[in-house]
From TrEMBL:
<dbReference type="InterPro" id="IPR028082">
    <property type="entry name" value="Peripla_BP_I"/>
</dbReference>
<keyword id="KW-0807">Transducer</keyword>
<keyword id="KW-0325">Glycoprotein</keyword>
<keyword id="KW-0675">Receptor</keyword>
<keyword id="KW-1133">Transmembrane helix</keyword>
<dbReference type="GO" id="GO:0004930">
    <property type="term" value="F:G protein-coupled receptor activity"/>
</dbReference>
<dbReference type="InterPro" id="IPR000068">
    <property type="entry name" value="GPCR_3_Ca_sens_rcpt-rel"/>
</dbReference>
<feature type="domain" description="Receptor ligand binding region">
    <location>
        <begin position="2"/>
        <end position="213"/>
    </location>
</feature>
<keyword id="KW-1003">Cell membrane</keyword>
<keyword id="KW-0297">G-protein coupled receptor</keyword>
<keyword id="KW-0472">Membrane</keyword>
<dbReference type="GO" id="GO:0033041">
    <property type="term" value="F:sweet taste receptor activity"/>
</dbReference>
<dbReference type="Pfam" id="PF01094">
    <property type="entry name" value="ANF_receptor"/>
</dbReference>
<dbReference type="GO" id="GO:0005886">
    <property type="term" value="C:plasma membrane"/>
</dbReference>
<dbReference type="InterPro" id="IPR001828">
    <property type="entry name" value="ANF_lig-bd_rcpt"/>
</dbReference>
<keyword id="KW-0812">Transmembrane</keyword>
<protein>
    <submittedName>
        <fullName>Taste receptor type 1 member 3</fullName>
    </submittedName>
</protein>
Length: 213
């Protein structure tokens, strides 16, 4: 994805940018890879920084504010952001509250697909957002598996086995039944069965299982 971001910047001739990463393994790794590639495409990095992930830390707010002030000082119009949803949300919220002018934000699905980030009040004031997501694919047999699962749950045999299992459980856990789940049907979940995040999870689990095998 870092290489795709560089190609996008090169395609539009955006060579004066800021890059921000969350101070965790993902943010540091993605930003480091991006910087190593960007240098080979005549892209000048006016600012590079890391934003906190621990918001219980009293210094977190100051770090975010300092990051935004430094970005503003460089007068860049392009910000590349490698972060998960919570750090990204915090940076965007502070950008809005501090009146950062409209920018072009480039991100990855780590925060691009987050409902919390896109539902920030006045989010439209940050400017234009461009992002990359993993190409979706079909997980073989997944839809049938879910359909069969719903069918089995509706059968008396399954319910009987479930009741017998509950009798063997500790009494403290008997009242944890999710009543809100009872009315959910296959129709209710069918729209998310082809969600773009399912296929990457399948590939990751399959890769680990194959390696162990």
């Amino acid at each position: 994805c870092a290489e795709a971001v560089v190609l996008l910047l090169h395609r539009f001739g955006w060579n004066w940018i800021a890059t921000v990463g969350s101070d965790d393994e993902y943010g540091r790794g993605a930003q480091g890879l991006f910087l190593s590639i960007a240098g080979n495409h005549s892209i000048c990095i006016a600012f590079e920084g890391l934003i906190p992930t621990d918001f219980a830390d009293p210094k977190a707010k100051n770090q975010l504010e300092d990051t935004i002030k430094l970005i503003n000082k460089t007068k860049v119009n392009i910000i590349v952001l490698f972060a998960f949803s919570q750090p990204a949300q915090a940076l965007l919220e502070h950008s809005i509250s501090m009146g950062l002018s409209e920018k072009v934000w480039i991100g990855t699905e780590a925060w691009m697909l987050s409902d919390t980030a896109t539902s920030i009040p006045n989010i439209q004031s940050i400017g234009t957002v461009l992002g990359f997501v993993m190409k979706a694919g079909t997980v073989p047999g997944f839809r049938k598996y879910v359909a069969d699962l719903f069918t089995s749950v509706q059968q008396d045999k399954f319910c009987q086995e479930s009741r017998e299992f509950n009798h063997l459980m500790n009494s403290d856990t008997l009242d944890t039944h999710c009543k809100q789940c009872d009315p959910i049907s296959l129709h209710d979940v069918s729209s998310v069965l082809s969600h773009s995040q399912i296929q990457p999870v399948y590939v990751a689990v399959y890769s680990v299982a194959y390696a162990l095998h």
